[in-house]
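= Tokenised fold =
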Amino acid sequence: MNDTLAEAPPTLTPESPPEAAFARIYGQPLAQMPLDLYIPPDALEIMLDAFEGPLDLLLYLIRKANIDILDIPMAPLTRQYLDYIEAMRVTNLELAAEYLVMAAMLIEIKSRMLLPRPAASAEGEAEDPRAELARRLLEYEQIKLAAHRVNTLPQAERDFLWVETWVEKSLLRRYPEVNLEDLQAAWRGILRQARLTRHHQIAREELSVREHMGIILRQLQEAGGYVRFEALFDPEMGPPGLVVHFIAMLELARERLVEISQTEAFQPIYVRQAKEDSDPVLEDHDAEAEDGFDETETGA
């Protein structure tokens, strides 16, 4: 039996986990801060509340306290403003210098409000020392809101990107679209040309005045009284027939075979057969006519 004790196998101890890297430099993890690293005090600057100027800061304080711009309590507002200026002077003296002019103005307004107000003039009440400041704040707020609305509009390189493409113009040739008005204008032009080349033939037609005189007398006999002047004319006769019919009416009035009357000015004209010639005979009247108004030839 071997008295020599066998060597026990080495015990495995868990390795301590590596420290977490808080940064990477050129892809290599950095576990601890270098001891010879120098960081300037103003290397990193974080602005939680960024204001664009003294008016912006004043407007922020007023809206935060829910104060009416037209009735500003100058004492608490000036105190808050000066506290903010003092905090800015600790970090950045140049930035705080821009707000010192407004601080002086607030102190001046506060002092003027503590003094007795002068008597009101004849024109009206004395001017409020805060009026000019309120006017500037209202104008600044309107401009700020307008700028915000403009900023919400889509902007190139922020909300969308421009895309440029090359299009070969010879691939597709687009013709202008034709609408209804273009078709109507073209059709009217064709009709005008057609009217210029249209032929008008004039036919000779023989119309008898005596025949139309008989037609008028028969109409009056059938009516048995007054007949409106327009009712004695038939538009289907055409312009030549209407002209001869009107001449026949004048001839009957000249020979006192019909009576033409009107009750008042601008009233309808009425025609009736003359009482003394209740039954005229046109055939005998042809021979008695003095002016030989037998037939009239008209051109249509």
